[in-house]
Amino acid sequence: MKLIIAMIQPYKLPEVKKALFDAEVFKMTVSNALGCGQQKGYTETYRGVIHRVNLLKKVRLEVAVNESFVQPTIDAIIRGARTGQIGDGKIFVLDLPQCIRIRTGEKGGGAIG
Ligand SMILES: Nc1ncnc2c1ncn2[C@@H]1O[C@H](COP(=O)(O)OP(=O)(O)OP(=O)(O)O)[C@@H](O)[C@H]1O
Ligand SMILES: [Mg+2]
């Protein structure tokens, strides 16, 4: 199992949701976040002398998936979020040792899907 965490532009959330739906990925957690990448949060909105980092609004998307869904999920997020411009976002893929459905006590892959 893997936990896929994607930081995306907030305005791209509807397109990413659509792409995930088309890839039959229906379970997700979405949060508002602040962040910056290699432009230190500036070049997307401001050009000038940079003295410190500037945190921009981002959406953090988390999807826990079984192995067969890892690549389709990554592909869908890219399809929905990519413009080719800086700030399109980043995807982190983490090993996920366990998942438990609280209602039934199911564990592992059966609890994710
Ligand atoms: N190394 C990192 N660690 C933690 N969060 C990161 C990291 N890199 C990017 N992020 C998060 O992802 C968001 C989007 O990053 P962004 O797309 O700007 O990446 P980038 O590396 O600057 O690439 P680009 O040059 O295409 O802008 C950031 O605002 C931040 O929330
Ligand atoms: Mg950037």
Report on this structure.
It contains three helices and four strands, in the order E-H-E-E-H-E-H. Helix 1 (13-22) packs antiparallel against helix 2 (70-81). It has helices at 13-22, 70-81, 109-112; strands at residues 2-8, 29-35, 56-65, 89-95. The mean pLDDT is 93. A four-stranded antiparallel sheet has the order 2-3-1-4, with helices on one face. The protein has 113 residues and is α+β, with helices and mostly antiparallel strands. The termini are close together. The structure holds adenosine-5'-triphosphate and magnesium ion.
Q: In percent terms, what proportion of residues is strand?
A: 25-35%
Got a strand count? 4
Alpha carbon gyration radius? 16 Å
- Label the overall shape: elongated
Neighbour order of strands in the largest sheet = 2-3-1-4
Mean pLDDT across every amino acid position = 93
| Assembly form of the protein | single chain
Q: Count of helices?
A: 3
Bound molecules: adenosine-5'-triphosphate, magnesium ion
- The run of helices and strands is EHEEHEH
- Spans of at least 5 consecutive residues with low confidence: none
Estimate the helix proportion, in percent.
10-25%
- Major β-sheet profile: 4 strands, antiparallel
- Give the N-terminus to C-terminus distance in angstroms: 11 Å
Query: Structural class of the helices, strands and pairings?
Result: alpha+beta
